[in-house]
Amino acid sequence: MSNDVIEATPEAPVAPQAFTVTLNIRRYDPDSGEEAHWQAFDVDVFPTDRILDALHKIKWEQDGSLTFRRSCAHGVCGSDAMRINGRNRLACKTLLKDLDLAQPIYVEAIKGLPLEKDLVVDMEPFFASYREVQPFLQAHSVPPKDKERIQSVADRARFDDTTKCILCAACTSSCPVFWTDGQYFGPAAIVNAHRFIFDSRDDEAKVRLDILNDKEGVWRCRTTFNCTEACPRGIQITAAIAEVKQAIIRGHR
Q1: Are residues 90 and 133 in the same domain?
Q2: Which helix (H) or strand (E) covers residue 240, if one does?
């Protein structure tokens, strides 16, 4: 009798199956004279496709007038922040399989910034607040000749979390205070101020703290945690704002 072992032939992997999903997109064309309205599109997709992939298919195959921003398409540039099923997300990081596909998917522009067309908003108010907090290193001491400014691992770790911001505006445009008060700096500006306030190499922490110690600065934050939940990079934004408040009260970082 033969003792040979007969191995089972491995089954070929099953190819992903395409299916149809409905995207309800809030459309707006300033040249049409019409109010913003919802328009439904049926799109053939795969479970591993992203919302950005579905938007591309609509634009390339159904309606070339659909307008949205995107650049790197890999969650780094922050260009394609939008509201997906009522939550601020990056279209390039939102997988269809993670959504309830039994229902239509609702896609609209982020709130609180002037709507320009379809999913595109005017980002200038957002960047104006960003620029106002002076988000750049200001070191007045002269380092040794031909040497970098030395910083310990612990000092670098102090502000590591807030270096992750990609300026997508998902946090700021999820903030109810920002929706109702166009003068509020907003979470993203405060996060980028935090990044330099707590940088041991920077000499202008007090200047930034004075800027944020304003009626439209950190004290407008109501600690709703919307910003932290919306951040696609996982930054603990509410905690960073609280640290800036504490630094203002103490008078130093």
Answers
A1: no
A2: helix 237-250
Same-domain pairing of 177 and 90:
no
Indicate the length of the chain as a whole number.
253
Domain containing 28 equals 19-121
Q: What global pTM score does this model have?
A: 0.89
Q: What's the pLDDT tens digit per position in 3-51?
A: 666 666 677 777 778 889 999 999 999 999 899 999 999 999 998 999 9
Nearest-angstrom CA–CA distance, 20 and 57: 12
Residue 177 belongs to a domain with what CATH number? 1.10.1060.10
Total domains present in the chain: 2
Query: Over the chain, what is the mean pLDDT?
Result: 93
- Helix ranges (H only) for 23-66 are 51-61
Instruction: Tell me the CATH number at 34.
Output: 3.10.20.30
* Strand intervals (E) in the chain: 19-27, 37-45, 81-84, 87-90, 105-108, 115-117, 120-121
